[in-house]
Design goal:
Shape: globular
Distance between the termini: 14 Å
Number of helices: 15
Number of strands: 11
Structural class: alpha/beta
Helix content: 25-40%
Strand content: 5-15%
Order of helices and strands: HHEHEHEHEHEEHHEHEHHHEHHEEH
Length: 473
C-alpha cells in the first residue's frame, strides 16, 4: 500500500489539488513518523506539531474552497526548515547550547517564500553549531545519522534535513551550503541536492551574505522535486549583495528538457594536499563517467584549476565566519571546542589578512573561469570517503577534527568560493549498502543545465526506489 511518505512532493501536491489526499492526513502521518523514528535518526531539533496541524487545517480548507489552479505549487506539502534559518515565533538554536532559549523574531526570506508556496512547517532540522562542521553533532540534539547505517553520520551541516528526507520524515527539505553543506549530506543519505549559483536564493533579511560562500537550496529524493523547490526559493530581495544570472524558463521545465550533447570535464584530484579518494568513491566517479559517455556526452579530463593553494584562504574565511554569530562573553564556555578554536582563529585575523585572502581567491577565479567555462558541466566525486561513523570528527581535538573534515570533503568548497552551482547525484551504492554520490558543477547561472543533465541520469539509473530499511518501519 502506498503511504504519504512514499510519494514525491510533486505527486503529493497533485493529490492535494485533486482532493485525493488531505493536508491534515499528510501532516498527521509525518508527525507520527517523526515521533517514532526521529530518536533514531536525529533529524529534528524542534517539532512544531501544533503549528503544523493548524497550517494543515487551513490548507485543507483552501483545497476544498478554491479551484485547483489557484493553489500554490507546494500547497499542503510539509517542508522543514534548517535550524540556521529563522522562523518567526519558533525556537532557534543555531545548533548551539548558547541559544537554547532563543525564539525567532522574523522569517528568513526563504521561509517566507516557502510559506507563500503553501508549505506546512513540520519543524526545525538539526545542524551542528553555527553550521561550521561537515557533520551534525551538537549539544542541543542527538546526532543526525544517515538512515542507511545508523552508526554513521548524516553529514552536515544540513544533516538533519537530509536525514529527514532519507528516512521519510519529510518529503523535501530546505538546506544551506557554505562549504558543501547540502551536497555532503545528500551524498551520504542517497539524495539529490542543489547548491544554487551565488545570489540565486536570498540570504536575508537577517543573515548577511558578505563572503558569498553560503546559499540556501533544496534537498529531495527526485530531481523534479528539487527543481520545483528551487523555483519556489529563488529570487533577489532588497539589500542582497549578489545577483545570479537570469534563467530562461523555470527550473522544473529544465527537468523535463533533454540536455542535448554536453561537453563535460571530469577530475578526481583533491584540492586538499594529502587527501586520498577511497576506492568506493572512485568507483562511483568512474561509473558516472561511463554513464555520461553512454548517454552521448563528451567526457574529457579537467585541466588543473582549483589547487591546494586556495585551501588556506578558505580556512581563513571560515574562521572569520565563525565569529559572525554574536556570543555573550558569559556564555562562551557553552561553545563546542571546534567552534571556539575556529573563532580564536577568526578573531586573530587582521583586516589586511582578510582582504589579502579575498584578493587571492578572486585572482584564482580570474584564472579558473576561462577554463571551467569551456565545459557545460564538471564531474567530481562529491566526497573522498564513504559515510563516516558518528564521532569520527567530533570526538577529536579541534585541529585533528578539522584536518579529518578536509580529507573527507576536498571537492565541495571550491564551488562555494567560485559561486558556481553544483549538485549531488545519488547514482552509486557501495557493496555494503552505503550511498556514494557524485558531484556535477556548472557555469555561473547554469543550474538549468545541471538539472536537465541530472534528470537524464535519474531516468537512466533511477534511484528513488532505493530506500533504507527504516523507510518501512
Amino acid at each position: 500500500m502506498t503511504l504519504p511518505h512514499d510519494l514525491t512532493a510533486m505527486r503529493m501536491a497533485a493529490a492535494v489539488r485533486a482532493r485525493e489526499l488531505s493536508p491534515v492526513e499528510i501532516t498527521d502521518h509525518y508527525l507520527d513518523r517523526i515521533e517514532r523514528l526521529n530518536p533514531q535518526v536525529g533529524a529534528y531539533v524542534t517539532v512544531t506539531a501544533e503549528r503544523a496541524r493548524q497550517e494543515a487545517r487551513a490548507a485543507e480548507k483552501a483545497a476544498l474552497d478554491l479551484p485547483p489552479d489557484e493553489l500554490a505549487p507546494l500547497h499542503g506539502v510539509p517542508v522543514p526548515i534548517k535550524d540556521l534559518n529563522m522562523v518567526n515565533g519558533v525556537r532557534m538554536t543555531f545548533g548551539s547550547a548558547v541559544f537554547t532559549d532563543l525564539t525567532g523574531f522574523a522569517d528568513d526570506n526563504v521561509v517566507s517564500l516557502l510559506r507563500q508556496a503553501g508549505s506546512v512547517l513540520l519543524g526545525k532540522t538539526t545542524t551542528p553549531e553555527f553550521g561550521l562542521p561537515c557533520y551534525t553533532e551538537s549539544a542541543v540534539a542527538p546526532a543526525a545519522r544517515t538512515p542507511w547505517d545508523l552508526e554513521r553520520s548524516a553529514g552536515g551541516s544540513s544533516g538533519g534535513a537530509a536525514a529527514a528526507v532519507a528516512a521519510g520524515l519529510a518529503p523535501i527539505a530546505q538546506g544551506s551550503d557554505g562549504g558543501g553543506s547540502i551536497r555532503i549530506p545528500s551524498s551520504v543519505c542517497g539524495l539529490f541536492g542543489i547548491k544554487p549559483t551565488r545570489g540565486r536564493v536570498s540570504q536575508g533579511p537577517i543573515i548577511p551574505d558578505l563572503f558569498g560562500l553560503s546559499t540556501n537550496g533544496p534537498i529531495a529524493r527526485s530531481v523534479r522535486d528539487a527543481a520545483l523547490m528551487l523555483d519556489v526559493m529563488s529570487g533577489p530581495m532588497p539589500g542582497d549583495i549578489y545577483l545570479a544570472p537570469p534563467v530562461e524558463g523555470t527550473f522544473l521545465a529544465h527537468a523535463d528538457r533533454p540536455p542535448g550533447r554536453l561537453r563535460i570535464a571530469r577530475g578526481a584530484q583533491p584540492a586538499v594536499a594529502g587527501a586520498e579518494v577511497h576506492p568506493h568513491c572512485l568507483a562511483a566517479y568512474e561509473e558516472a563517467s561511463a554513464l555520461l559517455e553512454e548517454l552521448g556526452h563528451e567526457v574529457v579530463e579537467l585541466p588543473p584549476v582549483f589547487g591546494p593553494e586556495l585551501v588556506p584562504h578558505f580556512e581563513l574565511l571560515w574562521g572569520v565566519m565563525a565569529t559572525l554569530t554574536p556570543v555573550p562573553r558569559e556564555r562562551e564556555h557553552l561553545l563546542q571546542p571546534l567552534t571556539r578554536w575556529l573563532r580564536e582563529k577568526g578573531f586573530a585575523t587582521s583586516a589586511p589578512q582578510l582582504f589579502e585572502a579575498h584578493a587571492a581567491l578572486q585572482g584564482a577565479l580570474r584564472s579558473a573561469f576561462p577554463v571551467t567555462d569551456r565545459f557545460d558541466a564538471i564531474l567530481h566525486p562529491t566526497l573522498a570517503l564513504p559515510p563516516a561513523p558518528v564521532g569520527h570528527f567530533h570526538d577529536q581535538e579541534p585541529e585533528e577534527n578539522f584536518a579529518r573534515q578536509k580529507d573527507f570533503t576536498p571537492f565541495c568548497a571550491a564551488y562555494n568560493i567560485s559561486g558556481q552551482p553544483a549538485v549531488n547525484v545519488p547514482l552509486h551504492w557501495s557493496p555494503d549498502g552505503l550511498p556514494i554520490g557524485v558531484m556535477l558543477a556548472g557555469r555561473l547561472g547554469g543550474e538549468g543545465t545541471l538539472i536537465s543533465l541530472a534528470a537524464q541520469l535519474e531516468e537512466a539509473r533511477p534511484w528513488i526506489d532505493r530506500k533504507p530499511a527504516i523507510w518501512d518501519a
